[in-house]
Amino acid sequence: MTPQFIRPAALKSGDKVAALSLSSGFVTEVMHRYEAGKRQIESAFGWQIVPAPNALRGEEYLYRNPQARADDLHWALENPEIAGLLSVIGGDDSVRLLPYLNLELICAHPKVFMGFSDASIILMQFLRAGVHAFYGPALLTDLAENGGIHPDVARGVSQAAIAAVPFTVQPNSTWTEQRQAWLPELQETPRQFASSEGWTWLQGERPAEGHLIGGCLEVLDMLNGTSGWPEPELWYGAILAFETSEDVPPPAQVGYWLRNFAVQGILQNAAGLVWARPRGYTPQMVQDLYGWIKKVLWEAGREDLPVLANVEFGHTSPQLTLPLGARAKLDPVAGTFSVLESAVS
User: Fold this and answer.
1) Is there a domain that residue 182 lies in?
2) Which residues does the UniProt record annotate as the domain LD-carboxypeptidase C-terminal (predicted)?
3) In angstroms, what is the C-alpha Rg of the chain?
């Protein structure tokens, strides 16, 4: 049976959106970028960014107090003045919030929550609570982009979290993984973007439909085996969306993680697979990665599974926004990736 998810209210101009430091308190080291992100978000979407009570208390405090981070999430959910939730930045220990999270509050107060990377932990808890979640840019990343939010980022956020209609996911025309120091004097200096070579279909000959679920593989590996791991029914019939981080895991390691998904039966019961453009990979590593993906799918008896790769929803920029839980369609014949239903109301 296809899982059913609650649609949170679409975000609109004038809404107050909570800034949540659920992974790291690093934001206090780059407050100029935080302020730039706030300005750019208000300019692009009309949202007013409101820091959660503990969001700006610093890296050391938030590291030592995971419950304070969970409290911020609960505060934002229960606060009637807050319309949406936005991850400030990723990290590596959101998994420590699991003992303190209240999924009943997520279900009782469904709101747009958007983030990526380490936010995969929290996004999965929204899905487990039966609420759509949004795999998209964080406040300090593409929403505080040097020189302004990229049009492709603004389009992706608007399609997923503002416009309550289905949409076709469009490839970005440019991309970058350039590292530029987050210094005040460089905030208005744009990064260099190169022309994109587009998406790649690794396999598949027939269209497939399913709800979107996934995240950052390194983070999902931390979640695997815990109480926060999605139940089997959440994986069944899904279009999986996986990406890797700036840690640049070797292609073989990615293959080992995929084998775990195969042993769990997740690959065997999937409808499709969307793979993000991998950050930091050489052309040879990309080819090795694609080889591992196809190898493990063969091992799982899924040579039929449609696989779309090099999609811009991970750790490269501009970043698209995927509405997790929403029903989507991969069509290798038409070469399209469509979201068939709105994830907001």
Assistant:
1) no
2) 209-330
3) 19
Task: Please work out, in degrees rounded to the nearest 5, the angle formed at the alpha carbon of residue 105 by the alpha carbons of 88 and 133.
Answer: 50
CB-CB contact of 175 with 277 (8 Å): yes
Are 204 and 333 in contact, with CB atoms under 8 Å apart?
no
pLDDT in tens, 10-50: 999 999 999 999 999 999 999 999 999 999 999 999 999 99
Query: Tokens 């070579």 map to which residue?
Result: 197
Within a domain: 175? no
pTM: 0.97
Q: Alpha-carbon distance 144 to 107, whole Å?
A: 30
Per-residue pLDDT tens digits for 294-336: 999 999 999 999 999 999 999 999 999 999 999 999 999 999 9
* 332: in domain: yes
CA distance 89 to 80: 24
Give the H or E element holding residue 331. strand 327-331
